[in-house]
Amino acid sequence: MEVKYYHRDIERFLNSLDKTTRARVDRSIQLLSQRTYQLMMPDSKRLEKDLYELRIRSLESIRIFYTFFESQIILLYAIHKKSQELKLKDLSTARQRLNFLHFQ
User: Fold this and answer.
1) Between the CA of residue 91 and those of 29, 31, 82, what are the distances in Å?
2) For 22, left (φ over 0), alpha (ψ -120 to 50), or beta?
């Protein structure tokens, strides 16, 4: 399945990562494109209806929020995860982008 970025800030974020972390992110995205809905914990987690997180553990923990939309995987938002809990602000940004995507 084809993977697309919702916003250019995701690509900028991914390009800012160190080589090792970026390589793991790229492998995780490739795995997601191959396994789609079958990708499960610890690599992927469903957060709520139509909203998932891709979980990358390397030198730093990275989370990429995504959805499936019109036979594509849309990467909505990407963050460095620094604590156990997801920040409400980050989840809110992912939800807003998801909602906008569905109501275009």
Assistant:
1) 20, 23, 14
2) alpha
Are 6 and 13 in contact, with CB atoms under 8 Å apart? no
Q: What are the residue boundaries of the structural domains of the chain, listed by start?
A: 2-102
As a whole number of angstroms, the distance between CA 102 and CA 100 comes to 5
Which strand ranges, in their side-by-side order, compose the sheet holding 61-69? 2-5, 72-81, 61-69, 51-57, 44-48
Structure tokens at 39: 């990708």
Give 15-54 pLDDT, tens digit per residue. Answer: 999 999 999 999 999 999 999 999 999 999 999 999 999 9
pLDDT score recorded for residue 60: 82
Best CA proximity match to 21, nearest among 62, 52, 54, 53: 62
CATH architecture of 2-102: 2-Layer Sandwich (3.30)
